[in-house]
Amino acid sequence: MRSISSFSVFLIILFVGVFLLTGSQLFAASASASSELEDKPGQTEEITVQPVHSKAVVTTRHKVTVGGKTLEYTARAGKLPISDNETGEAHANMFFIAYLLDRDPADLPHPLTFLWNGGPGSSSSLVHLLGFGPKSVRFGADPIDNPGTWLELTDLVFVDPVGTGYSRPTKAEYGKEFYQTKGDSESVAEFIRVFRNRFAAWDAPLIIGGESFGVRRAAGVAEVLQRRGITVDGVILISGGFPLGELSAELKTALKASTYTAAAFANKKLEPELLEDLPTTLKQAEGWAVTEYAPALARKDELSEPEKTKIISQFSRFTGIDESLVDSEKLSLGTGEYSVLLLKDRNEMVGRYDSRLTGPHDPIEKQYNPTKDPSLKNIISGVSVLRYFRDHLRYVSDLVYQGPFGGGYPPPAEPRGDWMSVKWDWSAERKGRSESDQSLSAEDILSSQSLYVAMKANPALKVFVASGYFDLVSNYAAIAYQADHLDPDIKKNVTVRAYGGGHAIYTDETAQLEMKRDVAEFIKNVADRKKNSSE
Q1: pLDDT tops 50 at residue 522
Q2: Domain limits of the chain?
Q3: Which pTM was predicted?
Q4: How far apart are CA 432 and CA 412, in angstroms?
C-alpha cells in the first residue's frame, strides 16, 4: 500500500468537509417531472427512490430573498451520462444540481457557471451549500436564503466529478478512466458539453470554477474545452494555488511565512505593534520575505552564524514562533510543523485550512489526521445536506453521497484503501519530469501548462483568483507575487484577490460578501466582453 505521505498533503485531505457526509445515505427522492413545490419541506407524499444509474433529472421551482430582492428560479438535480464516443456506451453518470434564474425570454442569456470542489474525491457540497448556491445549509441549522449566493449574477451548476457525490462509473473497471488528473478533466469537460447540449445553453457566457484541487481541475477543463472548440469565457480559482507562472522554491518558502503571520495575528502571538492592523502587518511580512528572507534561503549554506541568527529572529517576529524552535540549518518550518508549534504552550494546534480555528494537539500522533484538524470539524452536516436534497430538490439515491475519505460498502481491504487520494493514479503526470521542474509538483506542472495553453488559445479568457489569509494550505502571498510577474499578455486578464477567510473563504460571512462583490464585477466584465465580441 502506498503511504499517505507519498501524496501532496492538501490533495489527500482536501478539506471539503465532505468526509462528514461519508457513510450518510439519502432516504427520499423525487420524480422526473417538474414540480411546483416552492420550498415546502416535510411534505409527506410518496417519493420515488432513484435507481443507481437513473438518468432522471428532477425539476423543481423555488424562490429566495437576497438583499431585499426576490429571486425566482428553477432547480434541476440528476445525472448525465459520460459516454464513449465510438460506441455510445455510458462509462459513467455524473450528478449535478443546477439553479437557473427566471428571466425574460427577450433578455440576453444569463452567464452559466459550473463549479466543483477538490480533493480529489470531494463532492461539490461546500461550494454549493455553504458558498454560492441559493440556500445555505450551515452546520446544525435548517436551510436559509443565502446572502452570498451568486445566482443573481449567473446561473449555477454544481458538479460532482466521477467518484464523488452520487457520480459513479457504470462498471468498476471504468473507474481508472476517471481517477486520474487527465481523465478527470476530460470527463468534467464532457459533462459540460452534454449539459449545454441537453439544455440548449450554447449561447450563455461560459464560466468554470473550482476550489482547492478543483483549481487544477479547472485549469485542465479550460484547456480541454478550448481544444474541443468550446469557448470558455471565464475561470474562477479558489484556494488552490496559482496554475500560472513559476516561483522559485526559496520564494515559495519565504512567502509562506506571510500565512504564518496571519495565523499568529489571529492567535495574538505577535508583538503588540504587529497586532494593530492585519493588512499593514502582512505587507511588512511580505516585504521582508521578498527582500531579505528569500535571498537568505537561496544562500543558506553560505550564511554566517550572525546572519542566520538575524533571519531566525525576524522569522520569529513575523510568525510568533519561539526562536529556539527554528532549525538553524533549514531556517524555515513546514505547514505541519507550524500548525502544532504556534500554540505549543497551550498543547493546541491551529487548523491548516483556517488558522483562526484551534483544537487540542496529541503529540503522540505523528501522521497528520484530517479528521482531527480543528478547521475541518463541524463544517457541514451530512444529515442536513440529505434533508435538503429530499425536501427541497426532491431527489434521492440509496448510494452514499460520497466524499474523499471513503466509508461505503464494501469496506476496503487495506487501511484508507477507499480514500480517493489512495485510489488516484498520479503516474501519468509524473512521467517525463525534468530536473528543472523539481520545485513544482507534477500536478502543478500539468495544470500550469493547461491554463497557459487555454489562455493563449483564447486571448479573451479572463481568470479570477481568490485566497484566504488564514489558509495555511494555499499561499495567498505567493499567488499575488506570481500574478504580478506574469507576461503582460496574460497578466492583463488575471484578477487576484485575498480575503479575511480560510480555505473555504465563504464560511466567513464578511469575506463571503466581499468575494461576491468582486466576483460580480468579474462576471459582468466577462459577460460584457462576450456581448461586445458577438455584436
Answers
A1: yes
A2: 4-245+383-534, 253-376
A3: 0.90
A4: 32
